[in-house]
Amino acid sequence: MITFYLNSDARRIFTAAERRALSVVCGNICRQRWDGMRKPKLNPYQELSNAIIVMAAKDYRHALRIQRRNSESQAAKIKIDEIEQFFRSDWYRLLTNVDGEMLIKKLREER
Fold it and tell me: What is the gyration radius of the CA atoms in the chain, in angstroms?
């Protein structure tokens, strides 16, 4: 479990999608730091924020695809609810200025 402390009173526990994004981004940042030929284009924190959101969107698409194939899938319904809750959260708004409701709508419209 990875815990991120926002301040002394509040803490944030990452979801599975966020943990996967963290591992991908942290690995990329480490490689870029030690590779003298490449420099990170974005602030590492912005890269991490972007990766968390991209991973959540991929997981959301996957859960929607499973739900379309099997409308009775409880696992897909739980995952969809969890990710929608993330897109509507203060944590999401801290990571980006993109409206979470608009993102949910656009992802649901995809085929």
Answer: 16
Is the Cα torsion angle 57, 59, 62, 67 positive or negative in sign?
Answer: negative
Q: What residue type is 58 in one-letter code? A: K
Paired residues of 3 in beta bridges: 13
Structural domain span for residue 63:
3-109
What local confidence, expressed as pLDDT, does residue 43 receive? 84
Determine how many CB atoms are found less than 10 A away from the CB of residue 21: 24
pTM of the model: 0.64
Alpha carbon distance 54, 73 (integer Å): 24
Q: Which position has the token pair 């509040």?
A: 10
Low-confidence ranges of the chain (pLDDT < 50): 1-11, 34-35
* DSSP string across 40-86: -SS-HHHHHHHHHHHHHHHHHHHHHHHHHH-TT-HHHHHHHHHHHHH
